[in-house]
Amino acid sequence: xxxxxxxxxxxxxxxxxxxxxxxxxxxxxxxxxxxxxxxxxxxxxxxxxxxxxxxxxxxxxxxxxxxxxxxxxxxxxxxxxxxxxxxxxxxxxxxxxxxxxxxxxxxxxxxxxxxxxxxxxxxxxxxxxxxxxxxxxxxxxxxxxxxxxxxxxxxxxxxxxxxxxxxxxxxxxxxxxxxxxxxx
Amino acid sequence: xxxxxxxxxxxxxxxxxxxxxxxxxxxxxxxxxxxxxxxxxxx
Lengths: 184, 43
Hints:
The complex is a heterodimer. By secondary structure, chain A is mostly helical. Chain A is 81% helix and 0% strand. In chain A, helix 1 packs antiparallel against helix 5 (131-152), helix 2 (40-74) packs antiparallel against helix 3 and helix 3 (84-116) runs antiparallel to helix 5. The longest helix of chain A is centred in the first third of the chain and has 35 residues, at 40-74. The two termini of chain A are 28 Å apart. Chain B is built from two helices and no strands. The longest helix of chain B has 22 residues, at 12-33. The model of chain B has no long low-confidence stretch (mean pLDDT 79). The chains are: A mainly alpha, B mainly alpha.
């Protein structure tokens, strides 16, 4: 990738990944309100709002983060399987995206109940669920860890990365480099 | 010549991540087996 394209891809990856983290933080706040509020209308609104927030914000940002991460790693010398931190981030991103897509079923179910059920007394308690709070909190921890890995980039080459590094060292220098070394 | 152990060994942080991931997978499997977790739980 050219330096300009590389910066554009990096910007897209940082924006989608950090945007995903921020959206999950907002979702966590909504789910805490849904679990703790004493006002039936508020609880109903929160569980109804969670489904479109998931489909139109969380899912697109997670897929964008995954896609731009793949472009970023495959289009730069970092590679996808050479460094442990890149590999760990890839696994975390895939895991979070798959769990999110599966969890959309639960959010759809909770939104359906919120739309249909008259929310008074016991019905309100039946709708309240700690599940969105737990899932959003776990996602937030995972995304903060992924962000930390991106910034610190801890050392460590995988077996594949070491082999590739050795191959690169043994590869003869390009003709124009040899010419420049000879002073041409 | 001996290979550089530090360069070839798996870093400690990767081992810690692996252990944490393994513990979480075991916890999830246990929760799913006792019916306390999974996409079908609320249906």
